[in-house]
Design a protein that fits this description.
The chain is of the alpha+beta class. The protein is built from two helices and six strands. It is globular and about 30 Å long. The relative contact order is 0.32.
């Protein structure tokens, strides 16, 4: 299964990623974006935003979200359309 992560230092906050694949990208609340594993596809929802507590995981390179096969093409499109070029997909 592919994984995706965002380098927040490169994120411009444009939100293009969430327009393309809202099931995978989440607004962190500080103008930047994070990846998530949606409860729609996984047992629990986890947002990789560096937050603490249940439902949160590490951000950046250490916070890689699994991508369901059905969403992989959208995630690749989001990475290609990202103006900050901060989305990394690992197949």
């Amino acid at each position: 299964m592919a994984k995706v992560w965002i380098d927040a230092d490169e994120c411009m906050g444009a939100g293009t990623c969430a327009q393309v694949a809202p099931q995978v990208f989440h607004n962190r609340g500080d103008g930047l974006w994070a990846v998530k594993e949606s409860g729609q596809f996984f047992e629990t929802e986890t947002v990789f935003d560096g937050g603490s507590g249940p439902g949160h995981g590490p951000d950046g390179f250490d916070g890689k979200a699994r991508v369901p096969d059905s969403l992989l093409e959208l995630v690749i499109d989001a990475a290609q359309e990202c103006p900050g070029e901060c989305i990394y997909v690992e197949a």
